Fold each of these.
Amino acid sequence: MIPTDAISLVPRVAEELGLDEHLVKSLVENYWHKIRKSMVNLDSPYLGIRNLGQFHMMRFKVQSRLKTFESLVEKFPDHGLYYHKERNIQMVNKLRRILREMDASDVQRKKKRDMRYGVYAEQE
């Protein structure tokens, strides 16, 4: 299978479905815009894309970004850029929440694995 980008498929899909090319293009752009927005907003540590798969954030990347935003909040505490400070604080909170979700998921996954192989039952 030769990988193709979504925009190059627009003319073929429009012709196959009998739709206007601009309509198909706007649907494709809107779909990928929502996916990018979900990634940027840090809604969840996981992103599932139908017929493509589920993607997970890397813990070290989240921790690295968290350190960056924490240092920005500490470095520029009372400058006149209140909007940027608030945005950075929001990012710190989102990244901390994502790390908590990742930790909870790891614990749950470990319990399932241990239950499956009998390790968890032996410890109790």
Amino acid sequence: MKCYTHSDRDGVAICQHCGKALCQPCTIEVSGKISCRGVCEKEVELLNFIIKKGKPSLQSNEMAFLYLSAMTLIGGLLLLGLGFYEKHIQNIRILCFVAGPISLIFSFYFYKVVKKLREG
């Protein structure tokens, strides 16, 4: 891989903003990230700021999906239980036996979203 600016030099890093290969003289570190010297420094700094500010909202999303997973699990189990308990109205039993498993599937999906959020 060759430097984008200096085609005769080997690239040693890739800019976090534009993705171009950079040689050592073209590279500058901005808050722990690599940037094109004098070109993408402000953009990389902005990306670092956005990532830093976004972490708390990601954690609150994780908790929201965890609660949603628990509530759909409880709702699905209650619907299945009602389906077994209700003997007189056939339509309610059918609804419960359809909606219950669907709620359980959504609960599993929301739990998978939480796991993915935790992994990064």
Amino acid sequence: MAQQLAEMIVRAAGVTQDPASTPAQRQEAVAFLESLKGARRAGAPPPAGASPAAPDLSVVVGAAAELTRADRPLDVQVSAYALLTHAVRHRWDDLAEPERAAVGQLAYQHLGDGECFFKEGKA
């Protein structure tokens, strides 16, 4: 499920950045990405205003974490970071302990990546 969602996020991020996309296509892609912020907790009904078919928050976090890798296109990484930032800022209490640990580990890993970037004097 997380892999399928990751592919959908990649497509949506691409639509938002493609000059050939129509305004309606961009709006639909942005609405999809925004809808992921309303993901439900595992075993819980979706939050108010969210689609009944909204994926589990753990699936969204897993897909977003996968998409933050450096080998992903920048627009995909930015979209994934936005989802993770929202989860940490607004949904932290809805994350299970293993998910919190995974997000923390991911942040630490990316801090290390940034440290290497700055040490090389590229900033």
